């Protein structure tokens, strides 16, 4: 089952699309707030712009990503937490925020768009998502070659620093959704860095996954016991060869004995006939 962590790598894609579609609906939203649908959050002037963006984002999902709305809804959760819920209204959770959007702007977007994908975040979960988001944001800017504060190599250096800081935390417990996504980032980074780059940064990031002890022990055991089995086979072969030689010698001696006896009998017969 997918979690919100599985969608972080696509957040830059949603960010670009959403930022390009910043329509002005503030006045329309304020008009609705003066009507019957007054709510605590979206009708406060300091929140209107954020609520407007949330509505625009959800409308955009219907148009731009009809078959992949879940990833867009997960991005909206992360975005809403970072710009509204964490900083300006820490007591409000995402479920309540989304319900208020539906009440005020029910005629502006389809209510069912993100109904099945909304979830609440705590501070710890949000910070881990933010870390992954920062990784992918820097990685995308590094790949596209955008210049900022010393060029694209700065972005590569940021990727290494962020990863190595989190690498320490995932060494002990690497089976969490966060650490699994961190490992996926490492694979993408290492694969991309196989191409020639002039940046003086680390090209290969270490894995957070510990080697499987069974996988290690099997070849070691094979190496240990193979010579012993070879030795046993060699000794067995020597014993078999020795037994074969003894049998051949015994057969040869029997044959020689029978041949001599046969010649003696022929001699006696010939002598007596004379």
Query: Rg from C-alpha positions?
Result: 39 Å
What low-confidence regions span 5 or more consecutive residues with pLDDT below 50?
213-225, 259-274
Order of helices and strands: HHHHHHHHH
Describe the main β-sheet briefly.
Answer: none
Would you tell me the overall average pLDDT? 74
What share of the residues does DSSP label as strand, in percent? under 5%
Structural class: mainly alpha
Broad shape: elongated
First-last Cα distance? 110 Å
Number of domains: 3
Instruction: Specify the helix fraction band.
Output: 55-70%
**Tally of DSSP β-strands:** 0
By DSSP (H or I, 4+ residues per run), the number of helices equals: 9
What does this molecule look like?
The chain has helices at 11-19, 26-33, 45-64, 69-85, 94-104, 123-144, 153-170, 177-192, 213-273. It contains nine helices and no strands. The chain has 274 residues and is mainly α. The termini are far apart. The chain folds into three domains: 1-121, no CATH class; 122-210, no CATH class; 215-274.
Keywords:
mainly alpha; disordered C terminus; 9 helices; Plasmodium_Vir; 274 residues; 3 domains; single chain; Vir protein, putative
